[in-house]
Amino acid sequence: MRYCAIILAMILHFSNALQAQKPTRKPATPGAVVEVIVVDDKNRPRKGELILLQSLSSNKKLTGRTDAAGKSMITVPAGDDYAVTLKALADSNQYGTLPVPALQPGQSFTGNFQVEIVYEPAKSFTLDNVHFDVGKATLRSTSFKELNELVEYLKWKDDQKIEIAGHTDDTGNDMDNLKLSQQRADAVRDYLVTKSIKPVMVTAKGYGSSQPVADNSTATGKQKNRRTEVRLLD
Q1: Beta-carbon contacts of residue 111 (< 8 Å; ≥ 6 apart)
Q2: Cross-strand pairs, 126
Q3: Residues 211-227: tens digit of each pLDDT
Q4: Higher-pLDDT residue of 7, 218
Q5: How far apart are CA 36 and CA 217, in angstroms?
Q6: Helices (H), 102-218
Q7: Which one of 84, 91, 113, 198 has the minimum C-beta count within 10 Å?
Q8: Nearest to 203 by CA among 161, 173, 172
Q9: What average pLDDT does the segment 46-71 reach?
Q10: Domains in the chain and their CATH numbers?
């Protein structure tokens, strides 16, 4: 899936107050708590974003989802560096590396490591691996993996409305192309609804060959124009 996320700003803020010290009355914390906050370019919290913290020594991945406040709390072992990644559908955007110092015996962390990410997704993206039978609106089984990723995304973004936009190349009659593109958009919407996505969240619209993204005079161009897009609605 091509997501083409737009990164309007990128901020990695590692709290300087987080140092290892001898505990007093509190027991030692097992590892370190990383507090990740994701906001958009207007400083509004982004709910449901998938955060990955990957150990650079073992490649182990620890994950978390942001809540309504745009916050995710992930506990990681101390004494390692972690790649900080925001995974949007099938694409990943790596923001930097968070070093977590090792703890000596009898030491613990006094607070959380804080990471702030400013992130704004693209308003539309193409479902590259969604395919139909030739001249029909029947989804091929090879489409299900990518559509299931979209389902997972929408379950975490239950306040997000989207449009499924169907497009064709310019082969054949314009009215036939418009009808086919609508049927294909409807088929994708129906699939999402059968996977428990609320019908009110998804609209479907066919555009036929009216919005090409490539030259229809070549086979490669025609293939690019035969596409299904997801458009995020305000």
Answers
A1: 15, 17, 18
A2: 2, 229
A3: 999 999 999 999 999 99
A4: 218
A5: 48
A6: 144-156, 174-194
A7: 198
A8: 161
A9: 96
A10: 20-118 (2.60.40.1120), 124-233 (3.30.1330.60)
